[in-house]
Amino acid sequence: MKVGITGASGMLGTALIDMLAGQHEVFSTARSQGIEEKHTQWECFDLTDLRQLDDWLTEVKPDVIVHCAAIVNVDECEKNKKSSIQLHVDTTEVIANYLDKNNGQLVYISTDSVFDGNNKEPYIEKDGVNPLNIYARSKLLGERPVLTMKRGLVLRTNIIGWSRTNKISFAEWILKGLVEQKPITLFNDVLFSPLHVSDLSMIIIRAIEKKAYGLYHASSRDSLSKYDFGVMMADVFGFATENIFAIGVDDLKFKAKRPKNMALSNEKITHFLQYDLPIAREAVELMKKQYDNGWLSRIKGRKVASNYEFWKVE
C-alpha cells in the first residue's frame, strides 16, 4: 500500500514512519526532511503551494494519506489567520478532492480544541462544537471536506511524546523544568485527555485496516488538569513537585482564548476498533520506558547528555 504522510518531520509523522516503513511504501512530505528510513521517500515543499501539492499527489498516487501537517502554536494562528486557513483548510480540500476521485482514504488529524469547554463531562462526537480561537476554527473547517468523502476519517486528539525537532513538546517542556528545578506554572482548570503519539499511530493504522470512516475521538480513557499532569510527570520520572505551581488559564492574557474542558470520550473508537486505549499515566510511563530503553539515541542531534537532559547535544 502507498501511504502518504504530511507534516512527516513532526512528532506524529515520525512515529507513523517508524511503524509503517518496511510494511508499506511510505511517501513523506514536510517543509524540511525528518528521519530517514528504508521504504520512505521524501519530498520537501510548502504544502500550501497547492499546485505543488497537486503535482505531488498525481506523482505519488497514494492509496492513503495521513494529514498531520498543522500549525500547533495557538497564538501564532491567532496572529496569522491566513496561514492557518491555508494549511488546515485549503490543503485538506485539495487532498480530499484528489483521494475521493481516486477511491483513496484520508485520515485527518484534528484537535480537542473544537469545543468551548463548557461541558461538565468529556465530549463525545455528537456534542456541538464551538471553537474559541482561530486554530480550533480552522481545524474544524478542515474536518468538513474529509467528512463528505466516501473514505474520510477525522480523529480529534491531543498527543504527548518525544519530539524529534529542536522544538520540545509540552511533556518535554515540563520534564525540562523538573530537571533544571525551575518554576513550572500549569493550569489547574484546563482538562485534557492526553494520548501517547505511539498509541495514536497504532490507532491510525488499525483504523485504516478496519476501514474506519467518519468522526472519532482518540484519547486516553481518563482526563486530568494540566497541573495534575505535571505532578504525574514528576512522579513517574522521579522528581520532586515543589517547583510546580497551579494557575488558572484566565490569569494569563493569551492572545487566543482557550477552552477549559478539552476532555474527550474515546468510547466510540474503542468499540469500533475493539481496542482499549490507555489511561494518561500509561502514556507518561511509556515516555519513561522509551527513555530508559535508549529510544532517544536514535534521534540525530538529540542524544542524551545526562540525567534527562534530552534537549542538550553531547
Task: Explain this structure.
The chain has 314 residues and is α/β, with parallel strands linked by helices. It has a domain at 2-168 and 190-222 and 262-279: NAD(P)-binding Rossmann-like Domain (Rossmann fold, 3-Layer(aba) Sandwich). It is 38% helix and 17% strand. The chain has ten helices and 13 strands. It has helices at residues 11-20, 50-60, 74-79, 81-101, 134-147, 170-180, 197-209, 226-237, 267-273, 280-292; strands at residues 2-6, 25-30, 40-44, 64-67, 105-111, 152-157, 159-160, 184-187, 191-192, 195-196, 214-217, 224-225, 244-247. It has a seven-stranded parallel beta sheet with strand order 3-2-1-4-5-6-11, sandwiched between helices. Strand 1, helix 1 and strand 2 (25-30) form a beta-alpha-beta unit. Helix 1 (11-20) packs across helix 7. The relative contact order is 0.13.
